[in-house]
Amino acid sequence: MREAYRKRILVTGGAGFLGSHLCERLLAQGHDVLCVDNFYTGTKDNIAHLLDSPNFELMRHDVTFPLYVEVDEIYNLACPASPIHYQHDPVQTTKTSVHGAINMLGLAKRVHARIFQASTSEVYGDAHVHPQQEAYWGNVNPIGPRSCYDEGKRCAETLFMDYRRQHGLSIKIARIFNTYGPRMHPSDGRVVSNFVMQALSGEPITVYGEGTQTRSFCYVDDMIDAFIRLMNTPEEVIGPVNLGNPHELSMLDIARRIIELTGSSSEIVFKPLPMDDPWHRQPDVSMAREVLGWMPTTALDEGLTRTVRHFRAVTEAMQARSAQCRQAMA
Ligand code: NAD
Ligand code: UDP
Ligand code: UDP
C-alpha cells in the first residue's frame, strides 16, 4: 500500500526551468513524479540528474493532446515563457495554454486530482495599478505580439475558474512574476540570462529602451517553495495569488549589478524597446504572505551569484565540447 503522504504528482513542462526545480523538490519530499514535456523549450539536461531515481518518470508528450494517466496532483507549467520563445510560434503558444489547460483540467476531473496553474503577471499587461494586486483586471493588448501568451494565460485562468464553478474541481492559480536562476535557457532572450551570458562573454549588454522600465525578480528556490505551499493550502484557497519578489529595479540597475558581480568589462548598449513592453512591474504579495505564510528570502545579489556560477559552468562545458569537436575534425 502507498504511504499516506506519498503522492503521484504530474508536472507538465517538467523539463523546463521552473518545472525541473519543482520535480527535484517534489522527489526530495518523497513523492512519485511524472514529468511530461515535449521539449519545446525545456531539455533533458535539466532533468538528467533525476532520471536514475525510481520515483521519477519522464514522458515526452504535448499537452495540446489528451493525456490519460492516474495521478493525485497536477502542476500545469507547460508553456514557453520567454518572449522570444512564445512569439516564435504564437498559435502553438495559445494552443498550449488553452487546449493544454482543457486537457489537464479534463484529466483532473476524471481522476479527482487537485490542479495548479502556472499563470503569470502578464495577465496584468501594461498595468495602470502599481504595485499589482490580484483584484486588478489588467490592461492587456488582445491583438499584439505578446497577446498569444497574455491572452492564452488569461483564458486558462477562466477555464480553471469555470471547471471549479461547473465541476467542483480543486484548483490553485499562481500569478508568477519574473523568476530567475540556474537552468534558465542561456539563449531564451530573457533579461537575466541575456545579461549574464553577455557579461560572461565580454559582449555588450543590450539594454532595451532607456533601461528605466522596471521588473521585480524572484529567485527560483523561493518560487518553488511558494508553489508547494499554495498547492497544499486548504480547499477554499484558490487564488489567483501573486507570487514574486517585490524588490523592484530598473533594467539599467540590473545590468550594472550583473557587470559588477561578474567583474565583466562589457559595455552597456541601448537597443529599441520591444512593442507592448510593460513599463513597471511589482507584485503586491500581501495575499501570499497571509495565505501561504510566505515571503521570498533570497537577496538579489545572492541569487544572481548562484545564477552566474551556473551560467559560467554552462559556458565552460560548451567551450570544452566545441574544443573536442575541433580536435576530432582536425
Ligand atoms: P520554460 O520555457 O523553461 O519551461 C516551459 C516548459 O514547458 C518547457 O520544458 C517546454 O518544453 C514545455 N512545453 C512547452 N509547450 C509544451 C507543450 N505543448 N506540451 C508539453 N510541454 C510543453 O519556462 P519556465 O520559466 O520554466 O516557465 C514555466 C511556467 O511558468 C510557464 O507556464 C510560464 O508561463 C510560467 N511563468 C514563468 C515565469 C518566469 O519568470 N520564469 C513567469 C511567469 C510565468
Ligand atoms: N482529457 C484528458 N485526459 C483525461 C480526461 C480528459 O486529456 O483523463 C481531455 C479530453 O480529451 C477532453 C478534455 O480533457 O478533450 C476535457 O475533458 P472534459 O471531461 O472536461 O470534457 P469533454 O470530454 O466532455 O470534452
Ligand atoms: N530586456 C532588456 N535587454 C535584454 C532582454 C530584455 O533590456 O537583453 C528588457 C525587456 O525589454 C523588459 C525586461 O528586460 O523590459 C524584462 O524582459 P524579459 O524578457 O526578461 O521578461 P518580461 O518582459 O516578460 O517581463
TrEMBL record:
<keyword id="KW-0963">Cytoplasm</keyword>
<dbReference type="InterPro" id="IPR044516">
    <property type="entry name" value="UXS-like"/>
</dbReference>
<dbReference type="GO" id="GO:0005737">
    <property type="term" value="C:cytoplasm"/>
</dbReference>
<dbReference type="InterPro" id="IPR001509">
    <property type="entry name" value="Epimerase_deHydtase"/>
</dbReference>
<dbReference type="GO" id="GO:0033320">
    <property type="term" value="P:UDP-D-xylose biosynthetic process"/>
</dbReference>
<dbReference type="GO" id="GO:0042732">
    <property type="term" value="P:D-xylose metabolic process"/>
</dbReference>
<dbReference type="GO" id="GO:0048040">
    <property type="term" value="F:UDP-glucuronate decarboxylase activity"/>
</dbReference>
<feature type="domain" description="NAD-dependent epimerase/dehydratase">
    <location>
        <begin position="9"/>
        <end position="242"/>
    </location>
</feature>
<dbReference type="GO" id="GO:0070403">
    <property type="term" value="F:NAD+ binding"/>
</dbReference>
<keyword id="KW-0520">NAD</keyword>
<keyword id="KW-0456">Lyase</keyword>
<protein>
    <submittedName>
        <fullName>Epimerase</fullName>
    </submittedName>
</protein>
<dbReference type="Pfam" id="PF01370">
    <property type="entry name" value="Epimerase"/>
</dbReference>
<keyword id="KW-0210">Decarboxylase</keyword>
<dbReference type="InterPro" id="IPR036291">
    <property type="entry name" value="NAD(P)-bd_dom_sf"/>
</dbReference>
